[in-house]
């Protein structure tokens, strides 16, 4: 299989949002394929008709799109391939690797109750396996695979190592239900084979499924894919991730203001490592990612690390790209679109407001000075900074600013000279000036704000604050 182009897949069930664990599985598959010039495919496993919804499918596609994980071709519907799944079952029946089982649910349960009472294994062995009976008038039946009764099945897993399972622990799993519908365990194998999947990278809760699915691969004479079963994600307390740990769905992370690049970086490091590298971009991740770097132990969600990486990515991001994603964040939150003038102003201010911001909410807080209309609404700290004395000094500042060339260096010299005349440190005058320009005390440098706002707007805001 070494000469075969790499094909990976992500195969979620559309029964809810895109879980953060599922997003990481998709990311690992995407990185592995993209880093090797292969294909990353998407399959929607929608055979559970009662729980599968179009809305959930749309949420999954939307989550993957936000995360920046593009897939090749159209998403495949597992339900739509039922005829192909049944065709494979017929081939297995014809070859004798599967059989019709006419046992009723009552008979199976009676067997298991007796086994439990006698302390025997409850693994059901159908009396129809070697009966030679191909039909039973008017009786419903399921189709089962013929599992080997002796020896071992070995899962050669790239993460877990070789996992050996005794064949006498494998049941003759059902391939086709009594209503004629194919089971998930069959459909997964047929779909992976037909889609040309070479590497199955998925959660280790599917590890035991691999041994049972290999029965179908073997029966059909198909190549078994490379297995890589990755540990699940746990909460900070080491317990299985649940609602009590916070956000579970990818869309929640978008609404919390995390940029997609930071999420990709963080999720890649959640269970995989490349030396001591913590902060990296997509190109590096695709180049470095391999299955040997995945650990065997469950990864723990750590919001402090996510926040730290977010700050690094926002600082390093292209300003125009960051503005584009910020506008998508605002749209997701239900905010009105920005005007072209305001977007242009924010783009100019982006180098100031993105520094040390650990999310779009913090960035917007710092950008309040550029996004707010006059007269500014002062927060409590800003209002306290603008007392009568400071207002008087700001009035003195106005005529000096009217003749300035409006360079940052000159603005700092003008404000510094006025502060010195009043026996104040620069910071003492900068505080009321900050309140006048931003309406709050958390903002970029006053001189940077003055440059971005321009002379007319700066003087107008000072006038608002001193009258």
Automatic annotation (TrEMBL):
Keyword line: Aminoacyl-tRNA synthetase, ATP-binding, Cytoplasm, Ligase, Nucleotide-binding, Protein biosynthesis
Domain Aminoacyl-tRNA synthetase class I anticodon-binding, chain residue ranges per copy: 335-465
Residue ranges of domain Glutamyl/glutaminyl-tRNA synthetase class Ib catalytic in the record: 6-307
Keyword Zinc recorded: no
Principal cellular location given in the protein's record: cytoplasm
GO biological process, one term: glutamyl-tRNA aminoacylation
Cellular compartment(s): Cytoplasm
GO cellular component terms, semicolon-separated: cytosol
Subunit and interaction comment: Monomer.
Protein name, as recorded: Glutamate--tRNA ligase
Organism of origin: Roseinatronobacter ekhonensis
Lineage: Bacteria, Pseudomonadati, Pseudomonadota, Alphaproteobacteria, Rhodobacterales
Gene this chain is encoded by: gltX_1
């Amino acid at each position: 299989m070494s000469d075969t182009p790499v094909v990976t897949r992500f195969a979620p069930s559309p029964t809810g949002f895109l879980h953060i664990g599922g997003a990481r599985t998709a990311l690992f598959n995407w990185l592995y394929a993209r880093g090797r010039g292969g294909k990353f495919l998407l399959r929607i496993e929608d055979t559970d008709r009662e729980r599968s919804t179009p809305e959930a499918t749309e949420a999954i596609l939307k989550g993957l799109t936000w995360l920046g994980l593009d897939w090749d071709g159209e998403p495949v519907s597992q339900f739509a391939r039922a005829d192909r799944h049944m065709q494979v079952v017929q081939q297995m029946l014809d070859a004798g690797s599967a059989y019709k089982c006419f046992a009723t649910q009552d008979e199976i349960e009676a067997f298991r109750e007796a086994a439990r009472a006698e302390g025997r294994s409850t693994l059901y062995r159908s009396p129809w396996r070697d009966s030679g009976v191909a039909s039973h008038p008017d009786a419903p039946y399921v189709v089962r695979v013929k599992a080997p009764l002796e020896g071992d099945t070995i899962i050669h897993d790239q993460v877990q190592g070789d996992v050996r399972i005794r064949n006498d622990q494998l049941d003759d799993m059902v391939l086709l239900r009594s209503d004629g519908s194919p089971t998930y365990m069959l459909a997964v194998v047929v779909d992976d084979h037909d889609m040309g999947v070479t590497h199955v990278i998925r959660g280790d809760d599917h590890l035991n499924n691999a041994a049972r699915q290999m029965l179908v691969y073997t029966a059909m004479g198909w190549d078994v894919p490379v297995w890589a079963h990755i540990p699940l994600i746990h909460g900070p307390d080491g317990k299985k991730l649940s609602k009590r740990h916070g956000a579970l769905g990818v869309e929640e992370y978008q609404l919390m203001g995390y940029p997609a690049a930071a999420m990709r970086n963080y999720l890649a490091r959640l269970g995989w490592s490349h030396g001591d590298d913590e902060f990296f971009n997509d190109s590096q991740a695709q180049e470095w990612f391999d299955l040997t770097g995945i650990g065997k132990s469950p990864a723990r969600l750590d919001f402090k690390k996510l926040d730290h990486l977010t700050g690094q990515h926002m600082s390093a991001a292209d300003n125009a790209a960051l503005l584009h994603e910020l506008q998508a964040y605002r749209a997701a939150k239900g905010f009105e679109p920005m005007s072209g003038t305001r977007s242009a102003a924010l783009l100019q201010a982006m180098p100031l407001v993105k520094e040390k911001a650990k999310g779009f909410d913090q960035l917007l807080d710092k950008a309040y000075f550029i996004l707010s209309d006059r007269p500014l609404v002062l927060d409590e700290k800003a209002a306290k900074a603008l007392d009568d004395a400071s207002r008087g000094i700001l009035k003195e500042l106005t005529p000096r600013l009217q003749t300035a060339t409006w360079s940052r260096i000159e603005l700092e010299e003008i404000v510094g000279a006025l502060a010195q005349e009043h026996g104040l440190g620069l910071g003492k005058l900068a505080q009321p000036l900050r309140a006048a320009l931003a309406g709050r005390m958390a903002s970029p440098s006053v001189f940077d704000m003055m440059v971005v706002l321009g002379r007319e707007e700066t003087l107008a805001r000072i006038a608002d604050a001193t009258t």
